[in-house]
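Hi R.,

Here's the chain you asked about this morning:
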Amino acid sequence: MKKTQTKAFTNLISSVLLLLFEAWAYLETLGFKQPKAAKYVKPASFPQVMIAGMAIFTLVLLVQSCIKVFRGMKAGDDDNAPAETLNPVKSRGVAAAFFVIALCIVYTLLFENLGYVLVSAAICVIIMVLIGKRDAKTVVLVSVLVPLVMWLIFYKFLKVNIPMGVLQPVRDLVDKV
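And the predicted structure, written out as tokens:
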């Protein structure tokens, strides 16, 4: 089998593409507005930490893949197996991945108008159903409470202003308390 048809080679290509994406994402965070009131935690801090963590793991994958592709692999190595297809028609996992990517795009489009809590709750419901959670109480409670608690943490304690969209009266109520 050719090296270009192995999992190791696809990992190599994927890690290069991920590094390019992470570099672009990091550069985007440099353009975030820095409010004067935020001394310690700035709007770009959390994304930059997450991007740095992703970049570390991507670099590990890149080094491992380079070693396996250029030095060779043993016959029984899992990464020497044929690479799977990225055809969403043939692979249910790939179709689910593309669906989640589409959900992320919808999330960003609706974020400003509907607000963090509503959009996050809706996306959370969809993803929980996708992964097989069927208990309606659990799905609703997690989908509503997690975004609300996260918003409270970021808004009240970290002083990060997150859009509330149509739930602006909730933020006004929290400000009065």
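The radius of gyration is 21 Å.

Let me know if you need anything else.
M.
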